[in-house]
Amino acid sequence: MKKLEISLPRNERDESLVNDIEEATKLFLGELISKRLQNTLKIKIHVRKTTVKKTWGKNCEGVHLADAKGSTPDKEHKIIIHNDADIFETLAHELVHVKQIATKQYQQRWWKSDGQLHTRWEGKELGPKTSIPYRERPWEIEAFEKEKVLVKKWRKRLVNQIYLRELERSQKVA
């Protein structure tokens, strides 16, 4: 990745959590896109107490922000996650959106004719984003499906790390 920035709520700096978010981000992106494409991206991840639900609604656990540039894939991405959410599940979901935009699978642009944000999925124009119910948006369907697979891999990796640490400890004691 060209650049990765992670920030937590004020006065709650937890280096262990920052390291886990960084490792999870690398794992998730490694599953989603090529290393070459990863190296072109700049991603900012913010974990916040109030911003997400206050701005995007009480049911929102995270949001991915990128400029609407049409067929030009945005290289700068911002992910904001509510700190009460399952951080890693939400991170996986939002990183799927990073993949979708970086690979041009999902595109959005403002139309001058109607002043609305229009979307394109896999080359097909879908119309104004607001006209598509959230759970019927193909980019959301894919993100919900892939987040589960990614989080399962992340948890398996954590279990393996814990097992190896315990194995090392038991060998030192013996």
List the helices and strands and how they pair.
Layout lengths: L2 E5 L7 H18 L2 H4 L3 E7 L2 H6 L5 E4 L10 E7 L4 H16 L3 E5 L6 E5 L2 E5 L9 H36 L1
Parallel strand pairs: 1-2, 2-4
Antiparallel strand pairs: 3-4, 5-6, 6-7
Helix pairs in contact: 1-4, 1-5, 4-5
What does this structure look like?
The chain is an alpha/beta fold and 174 residues long. The chain has one domain: 3-Layer(aba) Sandwich (Collagenase (Catalytic Domain)). 46% of the residues lie in helices and 22% in strands. The chain has 5 helices and 7 strands; from the N terminus they run E-H-H-E-H-E-E-H-E-E-E-H. The strands form 2 sheets. The chain has a 4-stranded mixed beta sheet. A 3-stranded antiparallel beta sheet has the order 5-6-7. The longest helix has 36 residues, at 138-173. The radius of gyration is 18 Å and the shape is elongated. The chain starts with a strand and ends with a helix.
Keywords:
single chain; 174 residues; alpha/beta; Collagenase (Catalytic Domain); 4-stranded mixed beta sheet; 3-stranded antiparallel beta sheet; 5 helices
- Which runs of at least 5 residues are low in confidence (pLDDT < 50)? none
Task: Average the pLDDT over all residues and give the rounded result.
Answer: 89
Helix content: 40-55%
Side-by-side strand order of the widest sheet: 1-2-4-3
Number of strands: 7
Question: How many DSSP H or I helices?
Answer: 5
Question: What is the general shape?
Answer: elongated
Specify the CATH class: Alpha Beta
CATH topology, which one? Answer: Collagenase (Catalytic Domain)
Distance between the termini: 41 Å
Strand content: 15-25%
Radius of gyration using CA atoms only: 18 Å
Secondary-structure element series: EHHEHEEHEEEH
* Helix/strand/pairing category: alpha/beta
CATH architecture: 3-Layer(aba) Sandwich
